[in-house]
TrEMBL record:
Encoding gene, per UniProt annotation: Bcap29
Classification via InterPro entries: BAP29/BAP31, BAP29/BAP31_N
Source superkingdom: Eukaryota
Ranges annotated as spanning the membrane: 74-91
Keywords: Endoplasmic reticulum, ER-Golgi transport, Membrane, Protein transport, Transmembrane, Transmembrane helix, Transport
Role summary: May play a role in anterograde transport of membrane proteins from the endoplasmic reticulum to the Golgi.
Name of the protein described by the UniProt record: Endoplasmic reticulum transmembrane protein
Cross-referenced Pfam families: Bap31
Cellular localisation: Endoplasmic reticulum membrane; Membrane
Major place of residence: endoplasmic reticulum
GO biological process: one example: protein localization to endoplasmic reticulum exit site
Membrane-protein topology: Multi-pass membrane protein
BAP29/BAP31 transmembrane domain sequence ranges: 1-106
Family classification: Belongs to the BCAP29/BCAP31 family.
Amino acid sequence: RWQKIFMIPLWSKMAVFWNKMFLTIIVLLIVLFLDAVREVRKYSSVHVNEKAANVNSSAFDHIQMKLFRSQRNLYLSGFSLFLWLVLRRTVTLLTQLAKEMASHAALETQVNDATEAAKKYMAENERLQE
């Protein structure tokens, strides 16, 4: 039943669109991840913290807040990138499995038909030999 549903021509047209969307989302997540890495490196440098501590304590707190936010963005973008790639791989494997199961079922029916034909011919051959 599911094969009939997924063999509708509309799905193949949508697949091209969703593949482009997938690549767009991956590029966006990579850009966000690299931006978060840059921000973390910028705010975690020792010299920035020392200058801020000498100037004003609220400036030090402000830099620590920006460091926290950049680390949070790094973890979120990295984890979402990882999960998106895992999801894509899972969908790819499920698609391959479905195709293999369909081909296995077709081969199994072919084998059964060939076996029945062979039994029929063997029975006919035995009858002719008698």
